[in-house]
Amino acid sequence: MIKKSELYYPTEEFKKNAWVNDPKIYEEAGKDPVKFWEKLAQELFWFKPWKKGFLHKPPYFQWFVGGKINITSNIFERDWEARKNRIALIWEPEPISEESRIFTYAELFKEVCQCANYLKKIGVKKGDRVGIYLPMIPEAVMAMLACARIGAVHIVVFSAFSPDALRVRLQDTEAKVLITADGYYRGGKFIDLLKNAEDGIKETKVKKLVVAQRSGKTPWSFDSAQDKQEEKDFCKAAEMNSEDLQFILYTSGSTGKPKGCMHACGGYTVQSYWTGKWIFDFHENDIFWCTSDLGWVTGHTYTTYSPLLNGITTLMFEGAPNFPTPDRWAQIIEKHGVTVFYTAPTAIRMFESYGEDILKKYRFDKLRLLGSVGEPIDESAWLWYYKNIGKENCPIVDTWWQTETGGILITSLPGVGPFKPAFTGLPFPGVKAEVKDGNLLILPPFAPGLLRGIYKNPKKYLETYWSQYGKEAYFTSDGAIVDENGLIRIIGRVDDVIKVAGHRISTGEMEAAINEHPEITECAVIGVPDRIKGEAPIVFAVYNGAKLSEEIKKEIIGQIQKGIGPIALPKEVYLAEDLPKTRSGKIMRRVLKKLWAKEELGDLSTLANPESVDKIKKILYG
Ligand code: WTA
Questions:
Q1: Which of 79, 237, 357, 396 has its CA 20 to 30 A from that of 322?
Q2: Which residues line ligand 1 (CB under 6 A)?
């Protein structure tokens, strides 16, 4: 890359081959964003063209109204002759002793059709919700695509979520089928996922568990290996209305209950195709590795849909990037010749913490572009990524987006730049953003992939996104600033959501899980800075009982394990007699945060119980 003061630009060579290399695109798109998106949408395959590009009835809106599409037809049938023998999916298992599994587009299509036919056979119909609780194995991608093929709505639940967390999602969506696996490898151990699945479907409407075999020789067993062979190799695509549901994905918000973000077929397909094409500059021979789990939106859009819509190779890895050795991720990049690598700042800081020595063995000479997502990337992590992985040659696209937005909305384009450490860049062409009072807003016509609602909860949709600045501006819940070039820097969430190792966790949800404990009457969870994970949760719980403190702390951790799963485990649990509160009884989490950071507390006159502050000081500082 070329450096001009604090800004970086792509090399001439990169620019020459990039899909977009002229900043004029922003002007063109900005003139009439709806027309711009309509032009892009035409490159895809539609059963029936749309009548109206954008229809706005605040706070609701529609895109490509009247059009009919299927995302899988755009993966498999569009451009089929050119892509059928290309590699669609590379799967790297955790155990080094096992072989990678590799699928061409033709092979993947056959698997998807067989699974789709099987789902139909067991009664899944267009519009039905299907839960997917699978680890990082190829069957997870197949299951998602099989649902999309027949117009069923998938709800992917992260495999490390607890049975309770799974149950809430299945109940809310009334899914009748759950696709799971007998287990998976993590950290050298075989994890019994089926047990969690069986537990999670209790008290739900799930009548049928479909089980992928991770431990055995046959990849899918449906009911038995025999069943699978009986399914035909072709399944016709369901013709979906643009505004039909593509999928629901649950995410954390300010209050206790997770929210089901609803994504629409037409807009999601258009946005996931084009953001991948322009931001990761997908070309025919690219091998793309997005390290996110499929249970998060990043895995949905950039492991499954976007690379496959673009006809390139997507790589998925079952394990953790630092197991069994800290350089496992580097081995994978070299082994499979990854050309574009997309990960989170947490992973970058972890790689950095192992030192540069372990990188000496790796040349990364196929890498041409790097991406970052999920949390703010600090300048030092950015520079380390740039030097040690990109070898000062690869553009870095820091991509801002959310479960709600379906695809990336803010980033620098790799063939245009500029790239500025710790800044994500400009809104994607055709997207209008504004920073008002420090808050990041997305303005009409938003983006085709933005969520259409919260499942069964229109009130929450209105309150969360369309009340702070009216019904015409999407409130992101992120704080941001803009520099003199218009580049946007994301500061972080302004609500009770924290990003722990890039994972989105609600402190309210953690508190609700802890409060389920019969002996804990009150608690507060706050996010505190963490060198590697960015942020980490800590817990203050009110406990005045007789149990040993170690015992009750363990129980508190157990509550979080049960309600959410191991990803939300706190860095520290403190037991207190009382928590600082306002006169109306609201816990002052802000005061706790300051106490933890040893910052000036300011005016405490609004506290109902100022004496609690000294007691907490004692607990924290001894
Ligand atoms: C944060 C993940 C800074 C942000 C795709 C957002 C980021 C939340 C970035 C959404 C980035 C995501 N820089 N912060 N490049 N990307 N975020 O729903 O706070 O898991 O609101 O979607 O992650 O998290 P979610």
A1: 396
A2: 251, 296-298, 372-376, 398-403, 424, 477-478, 490, 492-493, 499, 504
pLDDT tens-digit readout, 602-617: 888 889 999 999 999 9
DSSP letters spanning 515-547: HTSTT--EEEEEEEEETTTEEEEEEEEE--SSS
In this prediction, residue 232 carries a pLDDT of 82
Closest C-alpha residue for ligand 1 atom 11: 400
Atom of ligand 1 nearest to the CA of 411: 15
* Residues in the chain, total: 622
- Look up residue 379 and give its DSSP letter: H
**Ligand 1 centre from 502 Cα, in Å?**
8
Q: Which of 300, 402, 475, 495 to mutate to test the pocket of ligand 1 (most atoms within 8 A of CB)?
A: 402
Our mutation pick for probing the ligand 1 site, out of 401, 403, 477, counting the most ligand atoms within 8 A of Cβ, is 401
DSSP one-letter code for 290:
E
Pocket test for ligand 1, best of 259, 439, 440, 478 (most atoms within 8 A of CB): 478
Ligand 1 atom 15: residue of nearest CA = 400
Contact, 421 vs 11, CB < 8 A?
no
What is the 479 CA–ligand 1 centroid distance (Å)? 11
What is the model's pLDDT at position 302?
Answer: 98
CB 457 within 8 A of CB 412: no
Residues with Cβ within 8 Å of 200's Cβ and at least 6 positions away in sequence, in order, are: 133, 162, 163, 164, 165, 166, 167, 170, 178
| CA pair distance 280, 413, nearest whole angstrom | 8
Average pLDDT over residues 254-271: 92
The rounded distance, in Å, linking the Cα atoms of 593 and 475 is: 25
Q: What would the pLDDT profile of 275-321 be if each residue is shown by its tens digit?
A: 999 999 999 999 999 999 999 999 999 999 999 999 999 999 999 99
Cβ–Cβ < 8 Å for 341, 118: no
Helix ranges restricted to H, 234-299: 265-279, 297-299
Residue 611 DSSP SS3: helix
Greatest extent of the chain over all pairs of C-alpha atoms, in Å: 74
For residue 322, pLDDT over 90 is answered with yes
Ligand 1 atom closest to the Cα of residue 476 is 21
Q: Is the pLDDT of residue 91 over 60?
A: yes
Render pLDDT for 221-254 as a digit per residue (tens, 0 to 9): 655 555 555 668 899 999 999 999 999 999 998 7
Write out the two tokens for 140.
Answer: 């997870």
Interval between CA 399 and ligand 1 midpoint (Å): 8
286: left (phi over 0), alpha (psi -120 to 50) or beta: beta
Question: Nearest residue CA, atom 6 of ligand 1?
Answer: 402
